[in-house]
Amino acid sequence: MKLPVLLVSVLFFVGVVHPAEEADLSRCMPQKEDFTSMWWRAGYPAVVPGAPWHRCISTETYALVQDTKTLTIPHLGKYKPGRPVSEPGPAELELKLSVNGKTYFARSAQEVSRFVGPRIIESGKFLQRADVTNLIFTAEDGSVLNQESRLETVAWGDRLGFILSARPGRQSVAEGEKCFGIINGGYGLTGANRFDVPGESCDTPETFRLSFHAFVPTVFKADKHSPWLVCKNAHEQKDGNYGIVLDKDAVPTALINIGGGRDNSYRIKGGKQAELKREQWNHLAISYDSKMLRLYVNGHFSAELQIEKKRNPVRGGLCFGDRQDGFGKGAFRFRGAVDEIKLFDRALSLGELRRLSRLPDKSPANMTPLQEWSFRSDVAASAERISEEWTAANLELRLSREGKELKSNWQLPEGETWLAPHWQEAAITFFPDTFQPAPPQSGIDITATEKAAGRDLPVSYEPKIGWHKINLDGIVPLPPDGVESPGNDAMERVSLRLHNRSEKDQAVRLMFEKTARGIRQRIGTPITGISAILRDAEGNPTGIPVQLSKNWHVHREAGTYSGSWFHGISVVHLPKGTHLDLELVIVYGHWGGLPAASHAQLSLIGWGNNQLWHQSALGSWGESICYDPDQHNAGCTITDVRPVLVSGMKENARWNWTHNHGGGDFFRFFDPAGERVPHARVRIREHRQGPCLTEVTYSGEINHTGIFHHSTVSLARSDDMVCGTYQLQLNVTKPVEFSRFVLFQIGADTYLSTREKKFAVGNEKGLITEWDTEWGGDNYKGEPVEARIHSWASLHDAFVPEGESGARANRGIILRSWEAKIGGKEIYPQFAEHGAQRHRNFPASTMDLILPPDIKSFAPGDYIKATIEHFIVPRLAEDYYGPDEELRAALERDQNTWKMIHRQAVGDQISVIMNVGRVIHQYPDVRIKTVQDRAEFVLDGGIGYVPLTFENLSSPDGYILTLDGVKVDQSVHGNDFWQTDYNPVSKMWSQTYNIRSPRKGGGAIRFGPDN
User: Fold this and answer.
1) What is the DSSP secondary-structure string of 816-837?
2) What's phi and psi for 846, nearest 5 deg?
3) Is the pLDDT of residue 15 over 50?
């Protein structure tokens, strides 16, 4: 860094304002006290049988155990890492809502469902932010208040916040013609009633179109069965029947029967885009013109089916909200409302249909229906359910422990009425180790300026969260000089000045925000691979981490925090009376001209299930490898996996989402009875989040077995293919027997997305054996094959469905290191094919790395250490559009065969001969501990780009890296090709580079101070 530049003092009539001193960066770095961790105390209860709903948070100074079901706090207080979180005593949390003279308390929450229950908003190195939705407020007499509420926890390293948010609830849909409509009144369907039209009043000609509006509440099913929105003529097997049924996600299916019986029943289901909007009016239409059955949703064509049969206009009743024959005594009923029902004897154009959807009360004369049904004109229309009205209300949050109390309340001003959708909050923020309130941050000034346009960006302090929010919406990504936008090398640059004018050192909590409209990158799917780096004023990465939390899921039912957003979260320590100049850079596809590697927490709010999900990406064109640490979605840790730089699913497009080749898992353990024992108490440590190398560890126990496991997952910056590197460790603390144990597998027993026709195993010399896969069966196929270091296995010749757009890929794994003792003996693992079946129509095979079949138990002291590479290889040369010509040539020669994995196994073997420094490991990166900031060695081997990390550095910058005497410089925007990380324990830095592998014979690497 350059020497501090003094600000010019300015003389005012009141005296002299002294310039702020520039802070020493070493005093601004994060400390271990800034870091947080959040996990389920006994594992996620939906996965681990009998586990309590205890969500835990711990830092270097405090621990919290929160029961998300009973809303109690069994443990809260001072804490030392490594100690049980049960050591702090309990705290009493009171959540109170007084409405119109009556008091209600929240002592529980609704049962967990797809969108309801405990949710994770942001989770990472600095901030754990989560909530519990749908609290139940009950009075002493047992009455339940109609309201909507959630309890949010905001956990930083030194402080904790609780935020109670509430608003009046919506009234239930009124029955029958008392209900609101889209124009005037509508017809309310409560699950206990239906709207019937006699057969003589709804005769439907051969050619017809039925159009109507439906209001779909959050809970629209009256029973477990899919409800009928509309049903003509008994049911789907009766001649003359037609109608619309909703599935569990409110996606409509249109049905018609022409001729009677099962074989003459036809149906078409709308796509995902046809999902009906919750708590809103939707327009639906079904038509038949003697040739095609068509379905329309909200003014858009949704689906069609060619039938080419003349319809018999059988007389029969028309029913809304139930199966017309009433079978099941209400089991097929719909909850919601219908309005403006119109039956036409001709097909309408799409334009006419859109007019009906958008302007139901203004149909022109040439659109006169054959029949129509409207409802009471003296009932008001409404776009949403009617709100409760509260004229006197008080919201109160109280927390007490050991005679101390913290309290916050909000009071409705006299004479005002509280209506939905207006949220109100009560909030407390405090230091849990002392149980003292945390004061709002004061004396901190922050300015943020878009570097290209010179535009000041909005900065606001939010005391309830405790962060300074910097909004980054609308920043224009800058292409490199002489390059036209858009492009993968575009970068967003923001100048930051942080000034602490107070008389005490302060930790400044930052949140860099982008909303759905804020991303201006015009290539790829940028939020999937976003990286945020804090650099100094000269453009050198500082090593101050930016926690990456984001979302792109939108579902109205999910409520608050649903939608697309990016939150980059960091903590900067600023000594009193100093300022610090930084630059925030945001990159998407590339960092230094190569696809950037990123690892982020992806919020599932808006998608459902709402728990922890991690998503890593190479570049910014879709997900690369996703991780589900608690295994709550698919029963495995590795979920969606997608190849990179190959043709996308949508019209073979480049820079887009590719096909899912997902499924994989670590440490799958089955007890002697054959039952899978789940992972429990999984905790996460984010070491590095990119953009040159990611490194994140998942640690836990196989539930109550005494088997403790650690999986460190990494992804490196590269331009050829996706390669996940996994450093695995298992330690046994008590005797345990098993029927099956899988150290690692791809896909997973419970989650498979692709099928390959060939399985091969080999070593450095080449192929050992190859066979045709045998899908399905839930058993091992053939004899396993022993694996040694650099052994490999390949699943190739991927099945491609007929007519599918987009490239498929092949998969393989390579064993890079191995050390194990079981029962006091050194053993080696084996590769095996295992038949699996995701569902009835999808049998497939997994690639398992297992122990020798005669091992059926572990004893205390047993251990396994392994490093595994997981490759997603382009299937065909024509699919790959990346710049690696050596890979393209290899594909042209050996595409769709085991030879592509063998190439990686042999070519990517690394040899390091050290002169200065010490090798820590070789995979996923060649990691060197420097001596007095220097390292010298000869590097041999590697394919594509090899990541190098230099540790034990006394400064974050001022170094030079050379290969065979030539300076390595991949910069596109200046100093934008290496990654800097900081170790708060050793108070030293590291730098990571990705260099093109030297040719056979080795390359001389020198690293050290640039002087």
Assistant:
1) EEEEEEETTEE---EEEEEEEE
2) -110, 160
3) no
